[in-house]
Amino acid sequence: MSLRLGVSLVMLTLVLQGCDKNKSAEPPAPSASAVAVKPPAPAPKPPPADIDLEVLGRDLSCDKKSKSDVCRVFGEFRDAESWKWKTPSGEGRWMGTATVRDQGKEHRELLVLWAKVVPTSRVDPGDLPLRTGFGSVPDDLQDHGEKMVSSLSRSDVPSPHNQALAYVESFVPKKDRGAVMTSGKSVRLISEDTVYLRQQGRKVLILMPKVSSSGSAGDGSYAELWPVTW
Known about the structure:
By secondary structure, the protein is an alpha+beta fold. It is built from 5 helices and 9 strands. It has one domain.
């Protein structure tokens, strides 16, 4: 064997050995069992039951001769449709009055409702893409608030000089809630309280019956609100 041929064979052997080392240094291909499998999306929860209007009606003792605001709101709620919570701007506010029954006695309060559409990624499966909440009107704006509700109930535009108007237009609740469509026509808030919403024309109707063994039958809040910002 010539010297040149011998050197060539030695160099070829070294190159082949280097290739084998490079191959052995490569990480092994992942096995099929090591490939991550994306878990399936959780199934939506079944919708909760709607409010039992038959039971509540018996608790309120409302009949055709009843003229109280509680019975009137209850009757309108019973015949109302689902709450149209989606607004063109994506954020809406309503204002009106709530008749509060406590131990059988009634008093009236001003109430503001806020609702905002949110991405579905921010809510649990089956929940509405919505955040909503309530608030009251400050004591020093009560008179202006009453005048404003009177205008809204007549489908009139509130006076721009009404001091309660600016407050309601910028209102955001301190604590907002999620919401879910029930098995009936009502929207129910996801909260420790029982809050059901429906709509009749432009008006939002809200029933908030108290669930307590210490109160009287039919205690709770019964509200009617009109749109302010849309």
